[in-house]
Amino acid sequence: MQYREDIQGIRALAFLLVFIFHLNSSWLPGGFIGVDMFFVISGFLMTSIIVDQKNNNSFSFYSFYLKRLKRILPAYVFFIFLTLLFGAFIYLNRDIWTLQKSGGSALLFVSNLLFARGDSYFGAQLSENPFLHTWSLAVEMQFYFILPFILIFLPRKYLLKIISLFIVILTIYGSIIIFRDQNKSSAYFSLLFRVPEFFIGVFYSLAFKQKLNFNRIFNNIFAISSFVILILSAVFINQNSFFPGVFALISTIATANLLIVDGNFISNLFSKKLSVFLGELSYSLYLWHWPIIAFIRYFKDDYALNVYEIVSICILASTLSWMSYHFIENYFRKRSDLIFKKFLIISVVVTGFLILLLPKISNVKKIPDVYSSPTFGLRSHNQKNIEIFGDRNSKNRQILLIGDSHALTIKPFLDYLGKRNDFSFSTITSDGLPALEGIKKEEINPNHLNFYNDSQNLVNITKQQIFRNKIIVINGVTFVQPKSTYEALEKLAQSLKSDQKLVVINTFPSLDHDPVKINRDFVKKTTRKFNLISHQNNRIALKKLSAKYPNVYYYDLSKSEVFQTAPFHKDTLMYYNASHLNTYGAVSLAKDLEADFMKFFKPIE
C-alpha cells in the first residue's frame, strides 16, 4: 500500500486526544476515543495490505505475522523491560505482584483480559498501573491474528455483507450487554466489543478502493464535518457514556471518513511536517507516555498532576519516544528477519526472568508486612473459613465478628482485648461489602461487582455463624452506600433471637492519601500533613439503628486519641493504606480504648 502522510497526521491526532485524557480526564472527557481511531486505522491499513497481496498472489500468513511482530515487538519488549526495572524500585513490595502480573500479561498480549476484572481492592489502582494502556495493543494483536483468516477464506462477493453484519450484530450485542449488566469495564477491554471498530476500517478499505472525490468544496465539507464530529465526541462522550457500543460508531465512522475522502483542507493539515512527524512517533509516544504518568501518580498517591510534572512528562516521553523510534523501531525495520528473531528470543527470555525476579529486587526496600499490608485474620477473609481469636481458653466463646475489610482490620483489636479480658471470638469477613443477605446488585458500582459477588458467596456461611452465636459484632466502612446495605443490616437486627445481641461499630477514620506510599518506611519520615476523613453518615445511621432496637448496641472507634497523630502513633506507621489500620495501629487502638470498650462490652456479655 502506498505511504500516506495524512494517515500519520490522523495518528498524531489520535495520540494527542489520548494524551490529554491521560493527563487529566476532566480536560477532555472523551479523549479515550483516540484509541478507537487507532483501531479504525489498523483495520483499514491491514485490510488494504492483505487484499493487495491476495490480489497479487503474494500473501503469506507467515510473512504477515512476522512483519507485524517486527513492527511492534522490539520497542514493546524494551518498554516492558525498562518499565519493570523502574517499577521494581518505585512500586512498594506489597504491590509488586500487581506489577508482575500486569507486566507478564502485557508481554503475552493478554493484558486486556486482566484489566477487564477491575481494580484490586488492596493493590495499586488502574490509574497507577504503568501497563494499563497495553490493553489496546493486546486487542490489536488479537485482531491481527484473526483478520487474515476472514479476508482470505471468506468468499469475496459476500465479504462486505458479512463485515457489515458483524458490525451491526456486535454493536447491538455490545450495547445491550453494557446497558443490561451496567458493566462498561469488562466491555471496554474486550476484543469482542472492539471488533466493530476494526471492522469499520475493514469495511471502508473494501468498499472504497479509490478515494471519494466529489469536488473540492464538498470534499472539504465532508472532511471538516467528520473532523468536527471527532472533536465533539472527545469533548462530550465521557466515561459514564455507554461506551463502546453504539456511541463508538460515531467517532469510528468519522475517522474512517477522513481516511477515504480525497484532497481537502483536513488531509492537507494532517500532511504537514509536524503532523507527520508526530504520527510517525505516535506508537512510541503511546508506549512511553503512560508509564511516566502512572509512576508519578503512584509515587505521590495523587491523580492530579501539577504544571512541573506535566512539563516533565512531555519532555521525558518525547525523549524516550524519539530514541525508541530511531534506535529500536527503525533499526529493526532495516535488519534481517534472523536478527529480529534472535533479538526476540533473547529479549523475551530476559524480560521473563526480570518478571520472576521482581519480588527479590523489591525486597531491598521492603517495609515489613505488618505495617504495609493486611496480615492478621486473612484465612477467614474472602474464604469460607472460620477463625477464632482472643482467649481460646475462655468460656465466653459465642461472639462473632463479621463485616468488610474494616472488620478484617479490627481483628487484632479484638484479639488483643480478648486475650486480656477473657473472651474469644470467631470471625468471617469479606472485601468491599459485609456478607449480608439483601444487598441489591443493581446498586453496586459496576467496577465493584467482584466484591459484591465474593461477599454474597459468604452469605450462607455467615448466616449459619450468626445463628450459632449470641453476640454479633459488625464493622464496615459504610452502611449507607449502597442504600440496601443499611436495609440488610436492619433486617439482621430484626431477625435476631431474643437472647442475641448486635454490636454495630462505627469504624475508624480514613485518610486522604496512602501514608505508606508517601512515607516509604514504617518509621515517620515525611512532613506531609494528612487529613482525616470521618464517616459521619455511617455514624448517624448506626446510632439510629441502635436507638430503634433494644438488642442493638453502638460503639465508636473513631473517638480514640491515637488518631490525633494519624497516620502515625508514636512516630510509627499505623495505617497500611489510606483506608485501613495495620496490625500495629489496631493494637495501639485496643490499648487506648481497652478500659472504655470493656466498660461498654462487659454488660453486653
UniProtKB/TrEMBL annotation:
Molecular-function GO terms, alphabetical: acyltransferase activity
Pfam families (alphabetical): Acyl_transf_3 (PF01757), SGNH (PF19040)
Transmembrane domains' residue ranges: 7-25, 31-51, 72-92, 135-154, 159-179, 185-205, 217-236, 242-260, 281-299, 305-327, 339-358
Keyword list, A-Z: Acyltransferase, Membrane, Transferase, Transmembrane, Transmembrane helix
UniProt key word Cell division: no
Enzyme class: transferase
SGNH domain span: 388-593
Protein's name according to its UniProt entry: Acyltransferase family protein
